[in-house]
Amino acid sequence: MSEENLNPFAMAQEQLDEAARRLGLDRATSDLLRWPLREYIVRLPVRMDDGSVKVFRGYRVQYNDARGPTKGGLRFHPAEDRNTVRALAAWMTWKTAVMDLPLGGGKGGVTCNPKELSSGELERLSRSYMGAVARMLSGTKDVPAPDVYTTPQVMAWMMDEYERIAGEKHPGVITGKPIALGGSQGRDDATARGGIYVTREAARVQGIELCGADAAIQGFGNAGQFAALLGADLLGLRIVAVSDSRGGIYNPKGLDTLALVRHKRETGSVYGFPGSDDISNSDLLELDVTVLFPSALEGVITSKNALRINAAILCELANGPTTPAADQILHERGVCVLPDFLANAGWVTVSYFEQVQNAYNFYWSLDKVQRLLDERMTKAFHDVWAMRQQEGVHLRLAAYLVAVRRVAEACKMRGWC
Ligand code: NAD
Predict the structure, then answer these.
(1) Which atom of ligand 1 is nearest to the CA of 190?
(2) Higher pLDDT, 149 or 43
(3) Which range among 1-15, 47-61, 108-122, 132-146 shows the weakest confidence by mean pLDDT?
């Protein structure tokens, strides 16, 4: 099968197989880790605004909970299907494990197009989903969070529905809530901030100077905008190029990141930013920069362009931007690829902090959240770097080895295999 048409769950299983082989896992353990422990498919009848009833299909996959309650986002998307949810749930399992959070991995979704739903229909769909899966969820069982096309408002409706069913308060049943309902400080920039911390560590161990070094960012949404702001602020990076779906801009002298964020907010795009030249998305990826942040789409770095990637550090804020074939090429060329499930784990880490604060009913300052995030990201990076040095493998495989070993050990100690 070519890397382009691999079903996502088959790809997740292939990655696990390689890690299991290298770790020498026994047959029972690798069989257990290749599949979700539990998966639910639910039918969701929803009253539409015109009085008709439409039945949607929803999923919740609890992939592995050996290390703690499963945790993972909930997507409302027309292409949502069982194998996508399974793959994302597997990746959440490795992500929480590589971060050494006391959590397992899960994922959920509803096959729907939220852009075609009114606010009332979206609320009824959210409540219907929670009604269908409530008995499978709790702060000690499985905790969803926002993901593609689900928002803090959707989380708030779902939490309210759960509490209505339970007859008591349970803010920790879901994370990514608005601050007013028990959300955590530090959520907004957590993904990019986590990526910036691991980039700092990757530069430190390789003796790469970041202050004044050039960086390029593909994608200028939540992850990309905060990567630009924090990359400049915390690391002293000079952001020379950024892009979004309308095109890219380039200025070798550096872009004013604050003005650029304002321009994007006002015009809807980075395109046409004063004082910059146009650059295509593919040329941006191939710029001679110290750090490249793919922050938009999956599959943008492939065997076709991997030989032309010139960055010293590639920090994957997007999920799945690099194909397996490209990974190998980049490794051989000495490009340091910070894999997505480490580089963008800042978000799930702050989600975990939200769960902890909900459990204590006591809330932390922004400073404290950022300090603890830095500690977690730094430790996770060094765990993975040590594995890379020990095994002589690329960082993605090293991250898998760290994560899979932790989950396998927890399964063994429980006597599951
Ligand atoms: P977003 O929707 O806020 O932004 C996406 C950006 O990508 C937009 O600026 C869009 O214009 C741009 N884009 C779309 N098509 C493009 C193209 N062909 N070329 C260049 N740019 C293009 O999304 P986000 O939340 O910033 O997420 C971006 C990536 O980061 C996704 O892969 C997501 O899964 C991953 N991620 C995000 C978070 C988070 O907390 N936001 C957490 C983990 C992972």
Answers:
(1) 40
(2) 43
(3) 1-15
Q: Are strands 291-294 and 214-218 parallel, antiparallel or unpaired?
A: parallel
pLDDT digits (tens, 9 = 90+) for 340-378: 999 999 999 999 999 999 999 999 999 999 999 999 999
Delineate the domains of the chain, giving CATH numbers in brackets.
Answer: 37-171 (3.40.50.10860), 190-338 (3.40.50.720)
Nearest CA to ligand 1 atom 5: 221
For atom 36 of ligand 1, the residue with the nearest CA is 318
**Does residue 107 have an active-site annotation?**
yes
φ/ψ region of 254 (left if φ > 0, alpha if ψ in -120 to 50, else beta) reads left
Residue list, ligand 1 pocket, CB within 6 Å: 191, 218-224, 243-245, 281, 295-297, 317-319, 344, 347
Q: Best mutation site among 265, 285, 297 for ligand 1, i.e. most ligand atoms within 8 A of its Cβ?
A: 297
The C-alpha angle with vertex 97 and arms to 95 and 101, in degrees rounded to 5, equals 100
Instruction: Tell me what pLDDT residue 6 has.
Output: 61
Q: What is the pLDDT of residues 290-330, one digit of tens each?
A: 999 999 988 899 999 999 999 999 999 998 899 888 999 99
| This prediction's pTM | 0.95
Cβ atoms of 290 and 314 closer than 8 Å: no
**Of 107, 115, 253, 264, which residue is the catalytic one?**
107
Cα separation of the two ends of the chain: 31
CA atoms within 13 A on the CB side of 15: 29
User: In which order are the strands placed within the sheet that holds 247-250?
Assistant: 277-279, 247-250, 238-244, 214-218, 291-294, 313-315, 336-338
Task: Return the ligand 1 atom nearest residue 191 CA.
Answer: 40
Residue 95: both structure tokens together: 């992500």
Ligand 1: residue of 77, 226, 244 to mutate (most ligand atoms within 8 A of CB) is 244
CB 209 within 8 A of CB 203: yes
pLDDT at 367: 98
- pLDDT-derived band at 142 (thresholds 50, 70, 90) equals very high
Indicate the pLDDT class of residue 210, thresholds 50, 70 and 90: very high
Cα-to-centroid distance, 188 and ligand 1 (Å): 14
Percent of the chain with pLDDT over 70: 99
